[in-house]
Amino acid sequence: MTITRLPKVGETISITTQAMEYNKFFCYRNFWIHDEEGTELVKIESVFVLMDFVNRKMSSVNEEIIAPFESEKIKKIKRQEKIEKIESGMMLPYRVRFYDIDSNQHVNNAMYFNWIIDVLGYDFLTTHVPEKVLIRFDKEVEYGNEIESHYEQVEMEHGVKTRHEIRMQEQLYCEANITWKNK
Hints:
With 183 residues, the chain is mainly beta. The chain contains three helices and eleven strands; from the N terminus they run E-E-E-E-E-H-E-E-H-H-E-E-E-E. The chain is 10% helix and 49% strand. The strands form two sheets. Strands 1, 2, 3, 4, 5 and 6 form a six-stranded mixed beta sheet that branches.
């Protein structure tokens, strides 16, 4: 996710998406947020997999499902930018609540962002804005579990980078790096 600027309260924006490419296991889809003048505010490049709902395992992309999106079939698996690991940091626990769960019976992806961002605290979040977000969802978190949101801040020449990991019993469920600038 690359953020030129965040939308302002009350601002009219448009959100668009396009299925870009796919291969045997992965679907690549982009999302954009533009202001009224058509200026790109945010670009999100995402990678999706299809899950077998019964056995909760990744399944291959069915040509019939993908055909209506008219995206290009490719053989190559695109490699995403590497997410830096936490070297030393802090942690806060969170319990998964009923309303954190989506229709697939696991935590909605938006909740991971809550857990990742909340640990940074009020003072940090009111003085910084994100510029770039790299995030990878590895495993599903289910209702009733308690996760640990691990994080660290690394000072950079032009801002701060935060590194994040959502863990449960030493197992990694989600990881992210966020580059921030001062407001």
